[in-house]
Amino acid sequence: METPYAVVFAGIPGTSKTPISHYLSCEFSLPIFSTDQIRFEVREDLRLANINRPGGVEEFEKRFAERFDRLLAAQVPVIIDGSSDRKWSERKLKLTEAGYGWYMISMELTKNFLLKLYADTGRSWWADDNLDPYLQQHEEFLHKFKADIDVEIHDDNFGDRLQVAADGLKKFLEDRAAA
């Protein structure tokens, strides 16, 4: 039986992880495990405007853990659409224990690029309070887990991010098949 694998992401919110996930899903016929979907469900079910309200984060973590465990038990390749920055130690351990490999895409975009991206897409309001803490969190992730990254999306290849991710995944799969 072939070892299952997960496509995982590192990077701050709004950096194009979901469009890449959907592209790879179509190109490689992979299901998507969406952390945004779980967040949406929690917000709706608990009637929260913000998931960071009391009970929201706890409910998200509970649902994520239950579904992630079921997913890993199924032993199927999957795309995990959401950032692994804060939780990579735990997710990596669970993937490893379940016999999964991973292909990690890291969104390595500069602050200036992100500010322009958010402005161009009408999300400048979000960056004002959130950008610096998320960038710090991503730097901490890189300090600990740089070796786990398979491909990086930078300012200069952002326009080709879908193809860069797909080409990297294709090579990853070819290398696995050859091993």
Describe this structure in a few short sentences.
With 179 residues, the chain is of the alpha/beta class. The chain is 58% helix and 15% strand. It has helices spanning 17-28, 35-46, 56-74, 88-97, 111-120, 124-145, 161-178, and strands spanning 5-10, 32-34, 78-83, 101-108, 151-154.
Describe what you observe in this structure.
With 179 residues, this protein is an alpha/beta fold. The protein has a single domain, classed as P-loop containing nucleotide triphosphate hydrolases (Rossmann fold, 3-Layer(aba) Sandwich), CATH 3.40.50.300. It has seven helices and five strands, in the order βαβααβαβααβα. Strands 2-3-1-4-5 form a five-stranded parallel beta sheet. The longest helix is centred in the last third of the chain and has 22 residues. The chain is globular. The relative contact order is 0.21.
Keywords summarizing the entry:
single chain, 7 helices, alpha/beta, Rossmann fold, five-stranded parallel sheet
* Low-pLDDT stretches: none
Instruction: Summarize the main sheet.
Output: 5 strands, parallel
Mean pLDDT: 93
What fold name goes in the CATH topology slot?
Rossmann fold
Tell how many strands the DSSP assignment holds.
Answer: 5
Number of domains: 1
Strand order of the biggest β-sheet:
2-3-1-4-5
Structural class: alpha/beta
Structure annotation, total helices: 7
Radius of gyration: 16 Å
In one word, what is the shape? globular
Percent strand equals 15-25%
Q: N-to-C terminal Cα separation, in Å? A: 14 Å
CATH superfamily: P-loop containing nucleotide triphosphate hydrolases
CATH architecture level-2 label = 3-Layer(aba) Sandwich
Helix content: 55-70%
CATH top-level class? Alpha Beta
User: What string, H for helix and E for strand, traces the elements in order?
Assistant: EHEHHEHEHHEH
